[in-house]
Write a structure and sequence with these properties.
By secondary structure, this protein is of the alpha/beta class. It folds into two domains: 72 residues, Chemotaxis Receptor Methyltransferase Cher, domain 1; 191 residues, Vaccinia Virus protein VP39 (Rossmann fold), CATH 3.40.50. Strands 6-2-1-7-8-10-9 form a seven-stranded mixed sheet. A three-stranded antiparallel sheet has the order 3-5-4. The longest helix is centred in the middle third of the chain and has 17 residues. The chain is globular. The structure holds S-adenosylmethionine. The site of S-adenosylmethionine has 24 residues, from loops.
Amino acid sequence: MSAVEKMSAAVFEQFAKVLESNVGLLIDPSKDYLLDSRLSPLAIRHGYSGYIDFIKYLVNNPVGNLHWEAFEALLTNETMFFRDRHPFTTLQEVILPNLIEKKKVSRELKIWCAASSTGQEPYSVAMIIRDYFPELLGWKLSFLATDICHHAIAKAKDGIYNNIEVMRGLSQEQITKHLTKLDNNSYQMKQEIRDMIKFELLNLIKDWPSMPKFDLILIRNVLIYFSGENKASIFKRIKNQLDPQSGYLLLGASESILYNPDFQSIDSRNLHFYKIK
Ligand SMILES: C[S@@+](CC[C@H](N)C(=O)[O-])C[C@H]1O[C@@H](n2cnc3c(N)ncnc32)[C@H](O)[C@@H]1O
């Protein structure tokens, strides 16, 4: 019997609604193994007999701390340094040189990495800046990285990664240059890199705080979890958040907005970089 059958379709439906309206995440009844594997440890820790009882409690009570613990347990924080590689090559070879040319008079550059998870993505951009465009360190560089997940943001701020995380995407040269070895199984991003980025909590499907217009927005591998309606609303707000002259948007490898009238792809190879039309 599937979990949905065990807990009744109505309870599942109610939980799916609470989750989507608070976090944006869509869950599908066929993914009941995810509910089991991710919520059972939390349920047991909080004294419930299992995840089904826990979900029953959640749908019958106003959203509070326990709900947020459950939501966070259901988020996928999967990330790595220089994920998919080629967007970072394009960033280095095309996008950043272009932005430097456009912004050389104001000498201001604003970057936002939305859904930055545990920090590997914004730190990859910061490493490119330090390695290839050190002149930007003398500019007014503002680099915001946000995520909905408290523990991801806390880890990103600390910038501490284990051996496996560090080996996923970084060369030995990059490790030596940008991280400090803490012990046999952990490294920390050097202070100078950590100081470049401001990490904050931000829920993409709720109101956004007042923010400047950005020259570059990275929003990768998060919109895939959202409904068409939430995606459309986020794209509208991203359009308002991008500098209309200079702004670039970078999506994840499996995401595209080719048919959105507000954006155009900047490359026929569909590298997932877009500009406002
Ligand atoms: C799969 S990770 C992608 C991380 C990184 N952008 C990358 O591509 O490697 C998705 C991230 O989106 C975050 N997320 C999910 N829903 C969110 C929301 N409503 N607002 C902000 N972040 C959200 C998750 O916490 C998670 O860290």
